[in-house]
């Protein structure tokens, strides 16, 4: 990606590239992107991104808690397992929608004065979250298949196996599912801490870019 | 992949400037302490809540602890089941006779023939135990009907469970652990268990007095836990199931038990299968209102309605090492449409502990932390 150039020319080149999946850069698009007064980049996440974010946030936290609790609980495992599987598939579907939206609608830029390492950590952690949102349900599904388990959804509906039954695949995937869950939880905590840091300490509009729409005052 | 976040700081006119930075007049302001403490408290609270949910804190009985205790009682046998470690794979078919269709829509009761992958085993955690001396024998089955539904069940030769709760089971497992000083269970702990869980007396009486048969083939296997059966008309019944042997009872004397080969039951099974298939009738017992449906330690009255729902026919067996049953978790909560779990807490705990037993042995086999006797590998 481009570096510290902040000229209109850089914006002309970089912004259409970011939205390339939806449309090729046209003369009109370049003109809009190149005009600073015409909002070349959004100040807020779009409505779909915000809806998906706030829908998925409690689901993913619930999923992590249910995941560890159902492995430990002597009494509550049955309903927790029955919840964990379909919820995981629901999160997979939402995450794919969200990835599509993210690729089509670039998020607002981070503040210019944000230290470089923090900006890099933000980008890296966001992509790690996306990767885990998609990988965890797929690993869970593949793991159950390799373990010879039916992949039960709601009402006796079964998903087809992703893999043949295989002890090595099962052991590797089951181990990965557990460790990646811990990594996901740690990343969620980091994300939450960073979001609150933006909201309460820096007060730089990053939090409100996900919390509210464009018209609302920050 | 586009990384819009790393785009150069494009002008964003409506982007608010941070008041903190603006107020600092160019110099870095001191970060406010209170918000930082708040963030730290929120993150730590979530971490602590997860640790509690995972059973790492809080002192609750966990499925891991139950599995650990069972493991401690059985000895270290990587690659084997933690309980009922010694057994063989068996296969055959279940033929429903249609009689159970009035109780449940499960396809297995209507289907002419459902393939079965099972396992015959003995109680205890040692894969080398002398089979003739095992008081408890078991039959686990996996039935996969043609609608893709699965019914897994793990049954035992005892007619009712020893205790009513997982806590009772844990107390029994702990009281049965050998005292390091004497090498035998501590009588004081055993007495304490008997006092706290009086329902176990009934089981001990069964263990003392029930006749010993001389084969897996002439042993009845009881599901013990109750399940909900859902009928097409929407009605619901609590049911316990048993597989009743068609082979005639033949006794096994105390002398025979002492002298028998360690693999006595396996040898008998092979001899019987060489003569022909072995059969059991599936008997469903329907609870009457008021029967204890959530307490597997309480038998139901003899007079309860019983329905013979079909016949299990086993015609082949394979060693469990490398056999098709080795990598199956006979989780009793894997149930087909038309059957669902009761609120029996022992059922939930069995499912939880089986999952850990399965995970541990699968990892041991996959990561080479076991011996060829467990995996069946040619080494």
From TrEMBL, chain A:
Does this entry carry the keyword Cell cycle? no
Main localisation? membrane
- What membrane topology was assigned to this protein in its record? Multi-pass membrane protein
Q: What InterPro entries has UniProt attached to this entry?
A: Cyt_b561_bac/Ni-Hgenase, Cytochrome_b561_oxidase, Di-haem_cyt_TM
Keywords (A to Z) from UniProt: Cell membrane, Electron transport, Heme, Iron, Membrane, Metal-binding, Transmembrane, Transmembrane helix, Transport
Domain (Cytochrome b561 bacterial/Ni-hydrogenase) spans 44-213
State the needed cofactors, names only: heme b
**Which Pfam families does UniProt cross-reference here?**
Ni_hydr_CYTB
Q: Which residues cross the membrane?
A: 51-71, 83-100, 121-144, 179-201
Matching entries from SUPFAM superfamilies are given as: Transmembrane di-heme cytochromes
Please indicate if the UniProt record lists Transport as a keyword.
yes
* Top-level lineage group: Bacteria
* Coiled-coil regions listed in the entry: none
Instruction: List localization entries.
Output: Cell membrane
Protein family? Belongs to the cytochrome b561 family.
Name recorded for this polypeptide: Cytochrome b/b6 domain-containing protein
